[in-house]
Design a protein that fits this description.
- The structure is a single chain.
- The chain has 8 helices and 11 strands.
- It is an alpha/beta fold and about 230 residues long.
- The strands form 3 sheets. Strands 2-1-3-4-5 form a 5-stranded parallel sheet, sandwiched between helices. It has a 4-stranded antiparallel sheet with strand order 6-7-8-9, covered by helices on one side. It has a two-stranded antiparallel ribbon with strand order 10-11.
- Helix 2 runs parallel beside helix 3 and helix 6 crosses helix 8.
- The termini are far apart.
């Protein structure tokens, strides 16, 4: 498995490269996001590790551009910034996971392995999903409710896909967190509620029939009936 580390701090990138290579991964390093973006178009990478604060192009912008080109390429953001707004911005740019420096390398290895395993599982998925009048094309990353096109961020798309795959099943916050954000997701945050509210505004707001429902104290369910 081949990983690209996009990090302008040479000491940090060198330590990450050495650590990941000790786990059997092939690792390239780029200190410049523009050059890294060219690299992913020439070489097949299985995972990107991207620092948020990069010269010439922020890591979030690099992530957004990379996901637009390669929607299934997993991205982990690395940053010294731990605020909620920064993490949400990272997820909205397409990041699949987020680690705040300094971090324990054992946790980094676990999260890298989880993202790579999830990518293998996703490659076996069907090309499309549908529930009621809601349709998702997993290849083109497009979403329609009836005949209306709906624009979703990458993380909103993953969340909706999980709901459709488990339609009419009550899902707890923990289940959603583990399957959409990964097993190391911080359940002490309100990300789940924030993103479900995002989805409701886009999926349900303009329609009489609501699909995403909250079961107080229990979780959430995608269902035609409340």
């Amino acid at each position: 498995m081949k990983i690209l580390v996009v990090e302008d701090n040479e000491k940090v990138s060198s330590a990450i490269k050495k650590g990941l290579e000790s786990q059997g991964y092939r690792v390239d390093v780029s200190a410049d996001a523009e050059q890294a973006f060219k690299a992913i178009q020439l070489l097949d990478y299985d995972l990107l590790l991207v620092d948020v604060m990069l010269p010439r192009m922020r890591g979030t912008e690099f992530s957004k551009r990379s996901k637009a080109l390669f929607p299934k390429l997993p991205i982990m953001m690395l940053t010294a910034l731990g605020q909620i707004d920064e993490k949400l911005a990272g997820f909205d740019s397409g990041a699949d996971d987020y680690m705040v420096k300094p971090f324990d390398f054992r946790e980094l290895y676990a999260r890298v392995a989880a993202l790579l395993n999830r990518r293998k599982e996703q490659s076996l998925d069907l090309d499309s999903l549908q529930y009621s009048d809601l349709r998702m094309d997993l290849r083109s990353k497009t979403v329609f409710r009836a005949d209306m096109a709906i624009q979703l961020t990458p993380k909103e798309f993953d969340l909706l896909a999980f709901f459709i795959r488990h339609a009419e099943t009550l899902l707890s916050r923990d289940e959603i967190a583990r399957n959409v954000w990964g097993k190391n997701f911080d359940t002490g945050t309100n990300y789940i509620d924030v993103y479900i509210n995002y989805l409701r505004k886009k999926i349900d707001k303009d329609f009489d029939k609501k699909l995403i429902h909250t079961k107080s104290g229990h979780g959430f369910i995608l269902s035609i009936e409340e």
